[in-house]
Design goal:
By secondary structure, this protein is mainly alpha-helical. It is built from 31 helices and 9 strands.
Length: 654
């Protein structure tokens, strides 16, 4: 019998052992190349065993028995060489080997038995088996990430890492122990989890600071994988560009989120201003492009904390830091090891000031806004403005805000003067120190109606008596006049309606001249001549009264209305005419920006008339180029959509 037939008789290890012992001395001992023969046919026997139809654990047990038989017959050296072929035999002859192995690795109860079988079978360090372990952990990571996706801003990473580490430790019992220590699978978990948190950055930003635990997860991932930094920067830029940096976002929202982004990046990269600039650079540039950005920033600084932006900025003002300047200051701190290092702390307010033109530009604009607020007040109370000024002094310094301090003190001085001249209780005067106030929007050449001029003269004499040798110099065209306007409500003139209107000085003067000549009228040229105005200024100012249906225009001549007309009808007519011209001149996007700014002005400053709104638009929106009828059309549209109300000649937020 040929020796090659021995292995074809039976696959039973006992049969093979018996036959080998019988013929060992007769044939094998005399056969040249016997070692190669043993290895070749031993491997063939293993291959048939690997192809057998039984479960994986049974198959590995039978392979172990077969190897024991070979070792008794052939010796350890030959068996070790045969053992090296086991992994490839299993992979070739058993298509479901790896999937069965994966299931066994996760669910087997006798870990020691499986570990011994894998080790005996030379599987514990085979690349395919180690790769299967990698796949198991990656699937677990994928499951954990899918569970964490969505708006889950609590701390999740520690639990995920604990779960993954436990799985790695379990698998390390079955395979080469060095796999659990040298594998990058846990590093992979940090990377994938970090990418997930980076992709959710905008949602995290919107929920900040309640989403801070999620940011701590991201920070831990960045510590473990420095390559995540570039991924985070690109992802953040893309999210901000799509969801924030577009015309539909309000300027206040842009500034608010700009602040939050700075704080978030500082949390992720403490003291690393290069990282802050990399991520916030696009928001900074966009905020700088918004024409109303500086004004909204200033209003956020000086409004009370009921404003969302103010509630964020006021704590920044209260921070005990060095005065704002154009020089970056590094603070030297001890690191606890006896050495010192330079640390540059995030200064949110300073970044915003730099964004909107620098310290001098921001203070100049604040001075102008403060003047507007003080001039618009009906009383001499300025407590809110005084609180804001004291906060600004903390960061900008007292010297830089001396002018503003004097402006607020002027209200107190005016209040004392009013108390000493009680005979003029219906004529309140705000006395300004011209050297400290910004240039006021006067109307050179304007002369008030004699009734108003007489009151001014009396007040001027009292002031000269009390403050000798100082004299009052009235600002032409500035101030307001409260008028009682009566109109008939019925054709038989049996019923009158009286309304109180606080009108700007110019508009009040015009209506007083018109009342004097009723039932006659005055042309635009005649009104202009009486007041020292240009014709265009006089006619545009009369729009104030025509909108209220107090005055009507007929062929360039203005008449007082004796009877009350339907204001809604009048509004609709003017709106239709003006809207047509607006549509021809500007597109809807520009009008939306103007509407947004008007709403913001009225929300922060209270009711305003058309002229005052127009002045503020020209001051804070350099590219504003609307005519007054076009502005009126925008205002009326806001009224008809219930965003604004119109009463007593003034618009206010609904």
């Amino acid at each position: 019998m040929l020796v090659s037939d021995v292995f074809n008789i039976s696959c039973d290890p006992n049969d093979i052992s018996t036959i080998v012992r019988v013929c060992q001395g007769e044939v094998i001992a005399d056969c040249r190349g016997v070692a190669g023969w043993k290895i070749e046919h031993g491997t063939e026997a293993l291959r048939r065993e690997c192809a057998s139809d039984c479960d994986l654990l049974t198959k590995l047990q039978r392979i172990r028995s077969l190897l024991n038989t070979f070792e008794l017959s052939f010796g350890t050296t030959i068996v070790n060489k045969i053992r090296t072929s086991i992994p490839e035999c299993l992979l070739q002859q058993c298509p479901n080997f790896l999937s069965e192995l994966k299931d066994r690795l996760l669910h087997v109860s006798d870990t020691d038995q499986l570990s011994r079988l894998l080790n005996i079978s030379k599987l514990s360090d085979h690349p395919a088996v180690l790769s299967t372990c990698d796949d198991i952990v990656k699937e677990l990571i994928s499951i954990k990430l899918s569970e964490a996706e969505g708006e889950h801003f609590e701390r999740l990473l520690p639990d995920v890492i604990v779960s993954i580490t436990a799985t790695v430790n379990k698998l390390s019992k079955f395979v080469d122990h060095s796999w659990g220590h040298s594998t990058k699978i846990v590093q992979y978990a940090y990377t994938e989890f970090g990418k997930m948190r980076a992709n959710e950055l905008f949602s995290t930003l919107v929920k900040y600071p309640s989403s801070e635990p999620a940011l701590l997860d991201l920070r831990d991932c960045l510590v473990q994988d420095s390559d995540l930094y570039s991924y985070l920067v690109e992802s953040a830029k893309d999210q901000l560009q799509k969801r924030l940096l577009h015309p539909g976002a309000g300027t206040e929202d842009v500034i608010q989120l700009y602040i939050d982004v700075m704080k978030i990046v500082d949390l992720l990269f403490p003291g690393q201003h290069r990282a802050i600039n990399s991520i916030t650079g696009s928001i900074q540039s966009y905020a700088r492009q918004r024409k109303d950005g500086p004004a909204i920033f200033i209003l956020g600084l000086i409004n009370d904390e009921q404003s969302q932006l103010a509630s964020v900025l006021h704590p920044e003002l209260r921070e005990k830091r060095a005065e704002l300047c154009d020089i970056e200051v590094d603070h030297i701190v001890e690191d606890g090891k006896g050495t010192h290092k330079s640390v540059r702390h995030l200064d949110v307010l300073k970044k915003l000031v730099q964004t909107f033109g620098g310290r001098d530009a921001v203070l100049g604009l604040y001075r102008s806004v403060l003047a507007e607020r003080l001039l618009a007040k009906d009383t001499f109370e300025a407590d809110t403005d005084l609180v804001a000024l004291e906060l600004l002094k903390i960061r900008f310094g007292e010297a830089a805000l001396q002018n503003c301090e004097v402006m607020i003190k002027d209200l107190a001085e005016s209040k004392r003067f009013a108390a000493k001249t009680a005979q003029h209780e219906k004529f309140t005067t705000l006395i300004t120190s011209s050297h400290y106030w910004p240039r006021l929007p006067t109307t050179p050449g304007f002369e008030p109606h004699p009734v108003i001029a007489m009151r001014q003269e009396l007040v001027g004499k009292d002031y000269a008596t009390l403050k000798n040798p100082r004299q009052l110099a009235w600002q032409p065209g500035m101030g307001t006049v409260t008028l009682n306007i009566s109109v008939f409500t019925k054709p038989d003139r049996s019923t009158k309606e009286t309304m109180e209107v606080t009108a700007p000085m110019i508009q009040a003067t015009l209506i007083l001249y018109l009342v004097e000549v009723q039932p006659g009228g005055l042309s635009g040229d005649e009104l202009a001549a009486k007041c020292g105005l240009t014709k265009s200024k006089a006619t545009s100012s009369m729009t104030y009264w025509t909108l209220m249906s107090v005055v009507r225009e007929e062929n360039g001549t203005y008449f007082c209305n004796e009877f009350k007309s339907d204001p809604q009808q009048h509004h609709e007519g003017d709106t239709e005419h003006a809207t047509t011209s607006v549509a021809e001149a500007e597109d809807e996007e520009v009008n939306e920006k103007i509407s947004e700014f008007i709403t913001m002005i009225l929300h922060n400053l209270g009711p305003e008339d058309t002229v005052s709104i127009e002045n503020k638009l020209r001051q804070f929106m350099p590219d504003y180029n609307k005519t007054q009828p076009q502005l009126v059309a925008i205002l009326n549209k806001l009224v008809t959509t219930d965003q604004l109300t119109f009463q007593g000649g003034k618009y206010s937020k609904a």
